[in-house]
Design brief:
Layout (H helix, E strand, L loop, with lengths): L7 H14 L4 E5 L15 H6 L7 E5 L3 E5 L4 H7 L6 E4 L5 H8 L5 E4 L6 H13 L3 E4 L4 H5 L12 E2 L2 H4 L3 H15 L3 E4 L2 H8 L1 E2 L12 E5 L4 E4 L7 H7 L3 E4 L4 H10 L3 E4 L6 H10 L2 E4 L5 H5 L3 H28 L7 H13 L4 E4 L4 E4 L22 E7 L1 E3 L2 E2 L2 E7 L4 H18 L2 E3 L4 H13 L10 E3 L8 E6 L12 E4 L2 E4 L3 E4 L2 E8 L9 E6 L17 H18 L5 H10 L4
Parallel strand pairs: 1-5, 3-4, 5-6, 8-13, 11-12, 13-14
Antiparallel strand pairs: 1-2, 2-3, 7-9, 8-10, 10-11, 15-18, 16-17, 17-20, 18-19, 21-28, 22-23, 24-27, 25-26, 27-28
Helix pairs in contact: 4-5, 5-12, 11-12, 14-15, 16-17
Length: 598
């Protein structure tokens, strides 16, 4: 057996040796697995193995004499800390996208290899066009060369999948299958490829443990008109109760049978719905070459999955009350212990996890906790190094972004607290962030409104002071699924109409690079609002799900309107009413103090 390659220098050299053997000029190494999700199992961490970069999105392009790694704005600092920049040049995904780099660095006759299972159909088209513009060719490979070099590559997960009972899901797989096949018929499609793991999990009411923090089911499925679905999954991972659960709606086949099923659709000249933004390029290629007619369309599960039914909405409320109690216990503990000067980011994150575990209902965290002390709070997607955590110091800001996965709901909450005394600048910025969060919480809007139309509400108070933040204001959240769920978001550009049942985060922030950062995050449920007297249109509003005090020591009430103060006081009264019964003793006394009206 070959010895493992020790570092990125030797790994890059070995990869280039394989590329020469295969007559390739370069190779694309994405962060994604074949299901294109944000989080991946250990076996799919090819980019991390090659480069050392551990962020949740990235792509490297390695040629025989150059190498670049592309990351978005969340990871511009992290990539330089983790990657050997003498051998890999960091590039900004938006300002210097891979397609531009390809056009600038490839030349006529070059052959750029890629794994067609790890690149989406849409990505492959863009990359192929960039190669063609340079006179080069984008070449699919039969076996990923990283897998050939990675001698200690972890095995694929083999843990059993489990049923998400209807008491939590709200609807049975039979009902969902009926709706989805009706959608196929309406679109004039014969079949649809379902490739998103959270769509597969939602459609069949299944959950898994393959991917950290995200209980999805990494598997492919084919929806067919007038027939059971085909689910491509290892039968050995399906306990008897799961097999019985699936039998009315799906035929289970081994993953290796997928390409044969795609070719069978092609021979029938079937019209196949395919979401090119998520489906692997290999799937589209097999369908096209075998004669299928591709119908470009969004995954039909995405929108109904995002629109939570009454059972899922009530589950979210219960999960947030439970999570709010854990957060209250944590914040009381933090307020008591932080001034002693003994806490660091890592120990605080572990303590918060222990409070959530004490509920007896925690399945997992919903993402890796982000505990930013001092200057690290200014890094929105900070990753704590357990070997080098920062201490929580006096008169400093501490930001903690965290969440839990419970069977009845997924939570995501950020709170910013002060240890000691804040400066006037800290209270000014915190209050402006809070004003934005409140204004978005108060919004009423008609059908058809998009996240981009509401985004300004969260930024207006910052804009008045010449300030802003560079991340989106809100993302969708699943129901015991992914903490980042499409299709709707709240940001400057989103064009998806907001609809009742969607759960979105509300998380404006402000970041003073190198010093401190502020973010306040609640989750919101969209619901129909009562039509006001004389109103002509159906309206919608937000119900706040998150139940946790906001640090009043950082609020400058002089900057707040009466309506904003009324919202805050009503919110804290609700927190005390709904979370208080779950607490006792010092925890309850702390909550009562934290929720005193301003």
């Amino acid at each position: 057996m070959k010895k493992p390659l020790p570092d990125s220098r030797s790994r890059l050299a070995a990869l280039r040796g394989l590329l020469r053997q295969q007559k390739l000029t370069g190779f694309i190494v994405p962060r994604q697995d074949e299901f294109q999700g944000e989080y991946v199992s250990a076996y799919a961490e090819r980019l991390h193995w090659l480069t050392g970069f551990s962020g949740s999105w990235g792509m490297a392009i390695i040629t025989l004499n150059k190498a670049a790694i592309f990351v978005d704005g969340r990871y511009t600092l992290q990539v330089r800390q983790q990657v050997d920049t003498k051998r890999l040049t960091p590039q900004h995904l938006i300002d210097q996208p891979p397609a531009d780099w390809i056009r600038a660095h490839l030349k006529k006759g070059d052959r750029l290899g890629f794994d067609p299972w790890l690149v989406t159909a849409d990505q492959a088209q863009r990359l192929a066009a960039a190669c063609a513009a340079a006179g080069a060719a984008l070449v699919p490979v039969a076996r990923n060369p990283i897998d050939a070099l990675w001698t200690e590559q972890p095995a694929r997960p083999a843990t059993p999948f489990a049923v998400q009972p209807t008491q939590f899901a709200g609807r049975s797989p039979r009902d969902k299958h009926k709706d989805m096949t009706a959608a196929l018929a309406k679109a004039g499609a014969d079949a649809a490829v379902i490739a998103l793991p959270d769509s597969v999990a939602w459609l069949f009411n299944l959950r898994g443990e393959d991917i950290p923090y995200t209980p999805v089911v990494p598997a492919f499925a084919l929806l067919k008109r007038g027939a059971k679905a085909e689910l491509f999954i290892d039968p050995a991972r399906l306990p008897e109760d799961v097999k019985a659960h699936l039998k009315p709606v799906a035929v289970v086949k081994k993953p290796a049978a997928l390409e044969a099923a795609l070719k069978a659709l092609g021979r029938r000249k079937a019209r196949v719905m395919l979401d090119g933004a998520w489906v692997a390029a290999r799937i589209r290629s097999v369908l096209e070459k075998s004669g299928a007619k591709i119908m470009a369309a969004q995954d039909p599960c995405v929108l109904p999955k995002a629109m939570k039914n009454q059972t899922e909405a009530e589950g979210a409320r219960t999960a947030h009350r439970r999570d709010g109690a854990a957060m209250a216990r944590f914040l009381r503990w933090l307020e008591a212990e932080a001034p002693k000067g003994c806490l660091d980011e890592w120990s605080v994150a572990q303590q918060l996890r222990s409070f959530r575990e004490a509920t007896g209902a925690l399945k997992d965290l919903s993402f890796e906790t982000i505990p930013g002390a001092g200057p690290n709070a200014a890094i929105p997607h900070y990753h704590v190094n357990p070997k080098k955590p920062l201490k929580l110091l006096a008169d400093s800001i501490f930001l903690i972004d965290s969440g839990g996965q419970y069977q009845d709901g997924t939570t995501d909450i950020t709170r910013t607290v002060i240890i000691g005394q804040p400066t006037e600048e800290m209270t000014d910025r915190f209050t402006r962030v809070l004003k934005g969060m409140i204004q978005l919480s108060l919004a009423r809007f008609p059908a058809g409104t998009t996240g981009s139309q509401l985004d300004v509400l969260a930024r207006a108070a910052l804009w008045q002071a010449g300030l802003d933040f560079d991340h989106g204001t809100g993302h969708g959240v699943g129901s015991y699924l992914s903490v980042h769920e499409g299709p709707a978001r709240i940001n400057k550009t989103d064009r998806v109409a907001l609809q009742p049942g969607m759960i979105l985060s509300n998380e404006p922030g402000y970041y003073k690079a190198g010093h401190w950062g502020i973010r306040i995050e609640n989750l919101l449920l969209i619901r129909k609002a009562e039509k006001p007297a004389g109103g002509e249109r159906e309206m919608m509003s937000f119900e706040t799900l998150t139940l946790c005090p906001i640090d009043q020591r950082l609020i400058d009430t002089r900057l707040m309107t009466r309506a904003e103060l009324d919202w805050l006081n009503a919110y804290h009264a609700r927190v005390l009413k709904e979370v208080g019964p779950l607490l006792a003793g010092e925890d309850l006394a702390w909550l009562e103090k934290a929720c005193v009206p301003l």
